[in-house]
Design brief:
Helix content is 36%, strand content 16%. With 396 residues, it is an alpha/beta fold. The protein is globular, with a radius of gyration of 22 Å. The protein starts with 12 loop residues before the first helix and ends with a helix. It holds the Pfam family Cys_Met_Meta_PP.
Length: 396
């Protein structure tokens, strides 16, 4: 951080997001960083080329554009360093490949992002890593699952699709006694609402595709590590040659400037919708950590500063045979909501969740789990569209 930005250390969230990661004075006063495209980087002489002492040596090792984004993420995370990768799934797979080897044992929360489970059950298993899934609410009792060869414990709070909360501090404190790395997928909260490294996590993972981008048009992941784990992560990232593109980095950095404002709108609108759903016929239950009725609410209130726009509810079904037809009828009747797998953009989305891959924490059995991403639309219009879905589901 340059001297003229020392004031940022005590600035508010919106101010930091507006000014962090880039100093206009470094590029002739232009407000936004330039997009530097690079593969080949030239050296002034053979000695400099041999020793690689200059800041930039090749495009895969960063450009001023990607460095600007990394600096901004480090500021938000409080991390020693950040690497950029092409997707959220890559942001999970890179640290897993960094800290796990053949013969190691890894503990993965059972409410994990589904593609992460697939990566573990296929790629990591093939490479000789033993994968074990654990209950998201295990807390300090995770000690009983630790083994001499346990090298990584992966967390995600709240959990994908069903939003179980985890006691991250309790888990990290136990796991560190075994000299084991703790990783966390914090995409739902972003570092604005939860800072994993402050709670003992070693490596914080985000799908920047979601809220940092905010516009459903960029794929990118960020991986941020504490001082202990940063050298190994940085080396592995460099070795694999997996990097984020400068154009995408520019767009993510641009999205960061408004992320807090957007998240606040997502938070308030989603909570209104969740509260409305709780009192509506046809809804068995609402899975949202910010609701007092949710089992993990007190933990969310203790550790988190806010909630994003993604949550689920259970669409009631009289019999198991009606679960899928009702879910399809509900989704097909929606007009404002799009049917899409991602979230974090400005538009509302809905998905019929498949929880058949769960091993320890099974999903609700009393109806269809519908995940909603509440976008930036007017909440009154969202209510109208959801009523269309409920009317269609009730007709079956």
């Amino acid at each position: 951080m340059s001297k003229n930005k020392e004031w940022l250390e005590t600035a508010g969230t919106n101010t930091k997001l507006c000014h962090t990661g880039y100093d206009p004075n470094e590029y002739h006063g232009f407000v936004n960083p330039p997009v530097v495209h690079a593969s080949t980087v030239l050296f002034p002489n053979a000695r400099a080329m041999e020793t690689r002492t200059q800041r930039y040596t090749y495009g895969t090792h960063g450009t001023p554009t990607t460095d600007a984004l990394c600096a901004a993420i480090d500021e938000l995370e409080g991390s020693a360093g950040t690497v950029l990768v092409p997707s959220g799934l890559a942001a999970i797979s890179v640290p897993f490949l960094t800290f796990l080897s053949a013969g190691d044992h890894a503990l993965i929360v059972d409410s994990v992002y589904s593609p992460c489970r697939h990566f573990c059950d296929t790629m990591l298993t093939r490479l000789g890593v033993e994968i074990e899934y654990y209950d998201p609410e295990i807390g300090a009792d995770i000690a009983r699952l630790m083994r001499p060869n346990t090298r990584l414990v992966h967390t995600e709070a709240p959990g994908s699709n069903t939003f179980e909360m985890q006691d991250i501090r309790a888990i990290a404190d136990v796991v560190h006694r075994f000299d084991c790395v703790v990783t966390m997928d914090n995409t739902w909260a972003t570092p604005l609402y939860f800072k994993p490294l402050d709670f003992g996590v070693d490596v914080s993972i985000h799908a920047a595709t979601k809220y940092p981008s905010g516009h459903s048009d960029i794929l990118m992941g960020t991986v941020s590590a504490n001082a202990k784990c940063w050298p190994k992560l940085h080396e592995a990232h460099s070795t694999m040659g997996i990097c984020g593109a400068p154009d995408d980095s520019y767009q993510i950095l641009r999205g960061l400037r408004t992320m807090n404002l957007r998240l606040d709108h997502h938070f308030r609108s989603a909570l209104k919708v969740a509260e409305w759903l709780e009192g509506r016929p046809g809804v068995s239950r609402v899975l949202h950590p910010a609701l007092p009725s949710f089992p993990g609410h007190e933990m969310w209130k203790r550790d988190f500063k806010g909630a994003s726009g993604v949550f689920s509810f259970v669409l009631s079904a009289d019999t198991p045979e009606k679960i899928k037809p009702k879910a399809h009828a509900f989704l097909d009747a929606l007009q404002l909501f799009g049917l899409g797998w991602s979230w974090g953009g400005y538009e509302s989305l809905a998905v019929f969740v498949n929880l058949s891959d769960r091993k320890i924490r099974k999903g609700p059995q009393d109806g269809a789990v519908i995940r909603l991403q509440i976008g930036l639309e007017d909440v009154e219009d969202i209510f109208v569209d959801l009523e269309r879905g409920f009317a269609a589901a009730a007709s079956l």
